[in-house]
Each structure stands twice: as structure tokens, then as C-alpha cells.
Amino acid sequence: MIGIFAYAIGVMYTPGPVNLLGLNTGLNGQFRASTGFFFGVGLAMLILLLAFGWAGAAWVRGDALVYISALGCLYIGYLALKIARASVTIDTKRQTARALRFRQGLVMQLLNPKGIVATLPIATIQFPGAGIHGAGLVLWSAVLALLAVGAPGSYSLVGDLLGRRIGDPKYFLWFNRAMAVLLLYVAAAIAYEHVYLPLVA
Q1: Beta carbons within 10 angstroms of residue 61's beta carbon
Q2: What is the pLDDT of residues 119-148, one digit of tens each?
Q3: Who contacts 198 (Cβ-Cβ below 8 Å, separation ≥6)?
Q4: C-alpha 38: how far from its chain's center?
Q5: Where are the membrane-spanning stretches (predicted)?
Q6: Which of 83, 127, 128, 158 has the fewest Cβ atoms within 10 angstroms?
Q7: 4, exposed or middle or buried, with CB in 10 Å at 0-12, 13-18, 19+?
Q8: 126 CB-near residues (< 8 Å, 6+ apart)
């Protein structure tokens, strides 16, 4: 279960388009006015988790989990390397005319590749591997969706509290590196539990 949270936090809380939009709302003093946007992002993640989770439960059977897990580990490792090597630039001079709304958060996250990247390994590898299905799938998806609300929300809050000083990219570079290490840990844990152990059993 720790691996599910570690992966979710590692992917959801790294700088991406939705989180940087959240940061921008905070920098422009729109943290409270953009609360609907954050919940729209959370609902999109719930939809993705449930859709992939129910489909994943039908696709992931028996020995197939070993091969899917191996591919998932490679993909998570690839993401970790991309995050660790990513350069971050933040345009703090851009002003937003009005606060972001619920529908914008929902649509943007449903169309955001990072949202799919965040949910697909959880729903198709980690949930089946942990025996999470049925009512458990709904409960876990709801918890992770609430965690997703906090991603752009926390960026917005930080922007609101610290103003434009947070715009220095070096802070995000260190944050990216910490998230990359977290993702590599998750990839190693999945590889050990869902690839190595079943193969040697």
C-alpha cells in the first residue's frame, strides 16, 4: 500500500501543467477563487482511476501481471529519469484574467497526459497486485482523487503564501530530484514484489 501512495505522490506532486497553473493562480492571489479548479482535477483523476481500474481488473489475470509489472517498472523508471533531468522554467510575469473553474480543471486533467501516466500503473498494476477491486477500488480511487486535489491546491497555496519568490526554478529542480528518487524506489519495489518474487516462486 505504501508503494501506491509513494507512486501517486511522486507523479501527482511534481511540476506539470496542472500544478504550474495552480502555482500561477496562487501567485496572482486567486488561491481561494480557484478551489473549484482543484476539485475538477480530483474528479478527473477519480474517473481515470475507476475506468482503468475496472478495465485493468478484467485485463490483468494470472501470469500477465508479471509482464505488465515489468513494463510498468520500466515506464516508472523512465519517468523518474525524465523528471530528474527536466529543466524548469516558470513564467511568473503572466497574469490570469480570472480564476480557474471546476470545468477547466476537469477537462484539463482528463486531457493531460500526466493524469493518464499517474493513474494507469496504479489502476492496472498496483491495484490488482494488492488485491484491490470492487468496493475497495472505489474507496482507494476516492482517496487518491482527494490526494490529487491537493497537488495543484498545494502549489497554489505556496504561490499565495510566498508570492513571486517561489518562481526561482532551482527550488523545483531539487523537488524534481526528490520525486525522481521516490519514483525509482517505487519501480524497484514493484520489480521485487511483482516480478522477481513470482518468477522465483
Answers
A1: 9
A2: 888 888 888 888 888 899 999 999 999 999
A3: 63, 65, 66
A4: 13
A5: 37-59, 65-84, 105-125, 137-159, 171-192
A6: 158
A7: buried
A8: 3, 4, 7, 132, 190
